[in-house]
Amino acid sequence: MRKYTLLFSILAHAGAACAVLFTTVLATGELPVPRDGSVFVSITPPPPPAVPPAPRPHVEPVVENHAAPIGAPEGIRPEVERPLLSDIAEPVPEGVVGGFGAGTSAAIPDEPPPPPRTVPPPPVRVGGGVTPPKRIGYVAPTYPSIALAAKISGYVILEATIGEDGTVRDVRVLKSIPLLDDAAKEAVRQWRFTPTLLNGQPVSVLMTVTVTFNLH
Predict the structure, then answer these.
(1) By CB count within 10 A, which of 38, 61, 140, 161 is most buried?
(2) Each residue of 120-134: pLDDT tens digit?
(3) What are the pLDDT digits (tens) for 134-144?
(4) Edge to edge, what strands does the sheet with 168-175 contain?
(5) Please, are residues 188 and 168 in contact by the beta-carbon 8 Å criterion?
(6) How many whole angstroms separate alpha carbon 134 and alpha carbon 170?
């Protein structure tokens, strides 16, 4: 009898415990939030300040001369009408040399051509059919003092160019004595001769002249 009572008591307690367990699990109410001794706070740092953009370099605008202007220019003066060449030039009759065509045209005077340059004939050398001119003016050479002190004497041979009028135009040394050359040329340049004729016309001639220097 006691065994049955004990078994029934155990089954009753087990049924009550199951009922309480199922009631708790199947309950739809909100469960209490358990207390937590640790509180975690998340702190987010502020974003860094934005870096300002770098300034752009200043670039001078390039203006092209052949580019079309953007705006209309101001202060444009009206173009002055110029008279035509036919309005200011004297008309010439048709067919006249110097005109531009038939009818009225401008006369352009022709410049006269420059005169031809006359090249003098080269001098001829005395000899053959050319008679040497006669000396009509004479200047004695001056003996250089340095040549006298050095007791230098002798003769200097020169070639003289005598013009159509008988004046000596050029002198060059053929046989030289250095201390006497200048004195000889200076004297011969002052000599005068008769004009030389060739076929009845005066011509310039080349002739050899000898200047002698003596100490006695």
Answers:
(1) 161
(2) 778 888 877 788 899
(3) 999 999 999 99
(4) 124-125, 205-213, 154-162, 168-175
(5) yes
(6) 17
H-helix or E-strand spanning residue 197:
strand 196-198
Going by C-alpha positions, the residue among 173, 190, 193, 61 that lies closest to residue 126 is: 193
Instruction: Identify whether the C-beta of residue 209 lies closer than 8 Å to the C-beta of residue 160.
Output: yes
Residues 6+ apart with CB under 8 A from 11: none
Our separate counts of H helices and E strands in the chain read 4, 8
Euclidean distance between CA atoms 183 and 165, whole angstroms: 24
Instruction: Tokens for 71, please give them.
Output: 């705006």
What are 160's two structure tokens?
């003289």
Low-confidence ranges of the chain (pLDDT < 70): 1-4, 18-48, 58-76, 78, 80, 83-109
The position carrying tokens 């209490």 is 32
Question: ∠ CA 59-63-66 to the nearest 5 degrees?
Answer: 155
179 contacts 150 by C-beta, under 8 angstroms: yes
The Cα–Cα gap between 27 and 32 comes to 13
How far apart CA 85 and CA 125 sit, in angstroms, is 62
The span from the CA of 8 to the CA of 14, in Å, is 10
Structure tokens belonging to residue 55? 């300034």
CB 161 within 8 Å of CB 170: yes
